[in-house]
Amino acid sequence: MTKRKWLILAGVAVAAGLFVALGLNRSTQAQHFTAKVERGAIDDVVEATGTINSVITVQVGSQVSGSIAKLNADFNSRVHKGDVVALIDPALFKGALLQAAADLKNAEANLQAARANLEKAKAALVQTKADYDRAVGLTKDGVMSQQQLDLAKSNYDAASASVDAAAANITQGEAQISQKEAAVAVAQTNLDYTVIRSPIDGTVVARNVDVGQTVAASLQAPTIFTIAQDLTKMWVYAKTDESDVDNIKVGKVVTFKVDALPKQTFQGVVSQIRMNPTTVQSVVTYDTIIEFANPELKLFPGMTAYVTIPVATVQNVLKLPNTALRYKPPMAPEEVLALYKRYGIEGGEGQRAGDDSAAAQSEKTAGGAQNLPRAPKAETAVVWKLHPDNTMEPVRVSLGITDHAYTEVSAILKGELKEGDDLIIRSVTSKTQTPSGMR
Predict the structure, then answer these.
(1) Contact 96, 134 (CB under 8 A)
(2) Is residue 209 located within the same domain as residue 187?
(3) CA distances in angstroms from 282 to 124, 278, 285, 334, listed in the order given
(4) For position 65, which CATH number holds?
(5) Cα distance between residue 225 and residue 80, in whole Å
(6) In a domain, 282, yes or no
(7) Would 279 be classed as within a structural domain?
(8) Quick check: is 152 in a domain?
(9) Which three-class secondary structure state does DSSP give residue 421?
(10) Is the pTM here over 0.70, yes or no?
């Protein structure tokens, strides 16, 4: 019985040892998730959101104040240049014109009276001049006294001054006529402004007033209609990030979609990149103008457009999933450097890889992945290939263009990589069940 007890205890100890050994081994074993290396095409594009607008939009307003008496256009009305689209009640402006015209006639009558007074003053001047000349001769002959001569001289000077005053009244009358004519012109212009005409051929896209509503033009002209010139040719104002501006070229053919027609793709051409920046929360964007034809009038002003601007395209190349480029193995930096050295990745490359691992660890500690600003794409990267025996091999590659899902392999710098190879994109250790590699 004692021997049997010892055999049972020995068996339990061996089983416990095996359980502990297998458990420890399983706790350190990592489970890897992979993606295949593929061969195909990559399209590098710039994606942006914009607003559809007409090429020319005119806000038709009123330069005079008054109540709207008539509206000849409404939403979606087709109008031509010179068409009467609205009428402001002209009663007050007609009265002002009549008053100005009456003032003008009064000024003309005053001018005629001033001219008559001038002729009368000239006749009086002739008479007093003759009287003065006779008085001079008679005074020399001793017939008239000096006092009489002085009186004749005074009358002559007064008549001369009256002629000058009459001439000045004529000048004043002519100035008043010019002033009254200007007042008539202003009154006529204000009356003409009560008739609102379309300045262009186009379509009414907005009507802001109703019949009977009063518009006040004291500070600024109120907008009555908004007219788009030609809705068959329109623009997209796309907001493009400052990091993408250099990749966008004038004349490039682009595509875009709208929410109203999600299954249809429209085409346009980049016509301009405006240099006026817009800054919102430290994000700088520029307006990229895209021209497109809208012959069937499917697209309306104000629609949101989701624009795709092609930058570069490659065909039949090796491409890696971007998740593989972001993967960092769940190892200490010393272990990563040892693997780099084993597969010929040494020196500065290994040092940068160690720095990347440290940065990844710091990011993990800070709380995981963040919505960081877009950073410049690295020219080279290290990806981790998984062998059938569950071992990992680092491969350094040179990167080309990307479509933000896959990236082109322009050259393999260290190691081997071919179509169909498995690249690690994520690792999970069964001990902690903490995923690694998704940054």
Answers:
(1) no
(2) no
(3) 88, 9, 10, 39
(4) 2.40.50.100
(5) 14
(6) no
(7) no
(8) yes
(9) coil
(10) no
Alpha-carbon Rg for the chain in angstroms: 47
* Same domain flag for 339 and 214: no
* Cα–Cα distance, 343 to 23 (Å, whole number): 31
- Alpha-carbon distance values, 413 to 215, 345, 351, 397 (Å): 74, 9, 17, 5
- What are the tens digits of pLDDT across the range 44-102? 889 999 999 999 999 999 999 999 999 999 999 999 999 999 999 999 999 999 999 99
Look up tokens 């003053």; give the residue.
121
Q: Total domain count for the chain?
A: 3
Enclosing domain of residue 420: 30-45+318-368+376-436
pLDDT in tens, 273-327: 999 999 999 999 999 999 999 999 999 999 999 999 998 889 999 999 999 999 9
Pairing mode, if any, of strands 253-258 and 304-321? Answer: antiparallel
Both 163 and 213 in a single domain? no
Residues 326 and 431 in one domain: yes
Q: Which sign, positive or negative, has the C-alpha torsion 43, 46, 49, 51?
A: negative
Residue 15 within any structural domain of the chain: no
Show the DSSP H helices in 298-420 as ranges: 322-325, 333-342, 348-366
Tokens for 296, please give them.
């069937």
